[in-house]
Amino acid sequence: MSIFALCLPLGSATAAVTDNMFRTSNTSWYCHGASLSDPYYCQTDNAELSVYLQSSVNAGTKASVRAALTGSYDATHLNTGEVSSPVTSGSGETDVIYQQDSTGLPSSTLGRTWCNDATDIERCDQHYIRFREGTGIDRMAACHETGHAVGLTHGAQAFPALGQTDPRLACMVAAHDHDNKYLGDNNSDNINATY
Q1: Is 190 helix (H, G, I), strand (E, B) or coil?
Q2: pLDDT of 105-140, one tens digit each?
Q3: Are 144 and 73 in contact (CB under 8 A)?
Q4: Percent of the chain scored above 90 by pLDDT?
Q5: What are the helix (H) ranges across 13-103?
Q6: What mean pLDDT, rounded, does the chain reach?
Q7: Three-class secondary structure of residue 42 per DSSP
Q8: 3-class DSSP state for residue 72?
């Protein structure tokens, strides 16, 4: 009798438990140019993820966004980079623009992500992320909203669907959970399979 062992190198990804990368059979929208009052997100348009933090973003929130980018997103196939000034029209738009302002946000909402310029029914050339002004935006919230800007959904929109607080969704759980401040294997696997 022979015994075979499967050895995986350190750091290898596991198979995703669910597909929570937009567009799944459980998402009810197509990518389109939306607004804060019509907050639809989609996949970003390529693996080069340029980001800009507006002057309205406070120092603590900037630190949380940078920690999420370097601590989670840089470990995927995405190549993140912060730009000193945004491109907001034409080709090569800045992929994600972060702002901090309470205007237009429901009172119970810490942040919201929406596509500003759809390139097709799945991809967006530019997303905006607005965080609530005067609140401490931590790494979990930064990881979560950035996840939407690259196409990650909540559990109800995943296929197969998961509960909104399923821990395998890591920072993409629908409730704010300070312990889930990283992408986790499932989200990383879906990003790597897409980009």
Answers
A1: helix
A2: 999 999 999 999 999 999 999 999 999 999 889 999
A3: no
A4: 84
A5: 59-71
A6: 91
A7: coil
A8: coil
